[in-house]
Amino acid sequence: xxxxxxxxxxxxxxxxxxxxxxxxxxxxxxxxxxxxxxxxxxxxxxxxxxxxxxxxxxxxxxxxxxxxxxxxxxxxxxxxxxxxxxxxxxxxxxxxxxxxxxxxxxxxxxxxxxxxxxxxxxxxxxxxxxxxxxxxxxxxxxxxxxxxxxxxxxxxxxxxxxxxxxxxxxxxxxxxxxxxxxxxxxxxxxxxxxxxxxxxxxxxxxxxxxxxxxxxxxxxxxxxxxxxxxxxxxxxxxxxxxxxxxxxxxxxxxxxxxxxxxxxxxxxxxxxxxxxxxxxxxxxxxxxxxxxxxxxxxxxxxxxxxxxxxxxxxxxxxxxxxxxxxxxxxxxxxxxxxxxxxxxxxxxxxxxxxxxxxxxxxxxxxxxxxxxxxxxxxxxxxxxxxxxxxxxxxxxxxxxxxxxxxxxxxxxxxxxxxxxxxxxxxxxxxxxxxxxxxxxxxxxxxxxxxxxxxxxxxxxxxxxxxxxxxxxxxxxxxxxx
Length: 481
What we know:
Pfam families: Pyr_redox_2 (PF07992). The protein is of the alpha/beta class.
């Protein structure tokens, strides 16, 4: 594995004497695949890393990995936001973490281009780093459509910031409705439209409706029936991963809570704070949540690696990029053949269940290739899915068994508690769930955290402090999903 020193560029902030001259493994992305691959690699290459014969560099936009299945519970206040994320610098102690955004990859030259906060401040433009082995795992981004008003008024539900911002926004709308004398404003503030009937949309809607219904008891002039929740889904079913029967049960459960579930319906426009649906309905609303699917990260289009018609990297069952040496991929960015499906045309679904397992095989194969050992195929039969519909409600279809209600909700919690990385996070989440069962829910909105300098700017500008209007938030400021 030892290579002669070359004139390669430096990792930002690293002195020349500290850079090993051995094999450089570059991991683009710090999500499921990026973090788990780097974690397994630092264990398998412990000796090489200690001797300076190898180095692992992780370039990621955030210094943490977000455990996305817990976003709905974080939005509902059941889990602290800090416990939904895993700090990469602590977990990947043997790797070099660079907080930056990969913008292009030239694999023919073994170089990647990226930007950091420092390059923006310095005004030097994008930096370039060379590598010997590439693991490309940038994940996915929200898949949006050219719907009028979507970019201006909608909010996504893919990041922790969006989840916590949405919680603050929902409670803020209840504050507005409680204080206004305008019936139209009150109605719009209490109308919440969710677009997309997959996991993200259904779980976010279920948890937030549960939270808002509980919170309404502390308002003297709001009742749970005043809040209007609408789920818009373009297909004829929701939660397809749990099967048709459990999907129908989920619809019945949501409708029993006065949630308006509209199937085979699309959002045509949300301009001027009015959600216009394809069935002719129109709802004045200050809240449109977009959860209608994801697409591969745009950085894949800025590479010279082969992609399929959906923009994902063409990969082999060994998690190498097809027809390319020294390039590896898994997760949302990779089109990996599903060997358990019995057909070469079937690909592994881009979900966390495959991503975590693919990362382990990827790391093992990469280490094996460096040591001259044979590679293994990735094969994992999909075991099923679990979904939460709010507190004590859920659906599950696992190993052919179908569960609903409290048992499914409990299975959802047990499964994800077992999957959230690190013992530290498991213990903290379990402690929070235990305390939540003993005490009342938190109903506080901390929306002012999104603008921490607003009060000082108001005071410095001669305002009156807390009563001075703050900068617009997610309900009126442009939001890019």
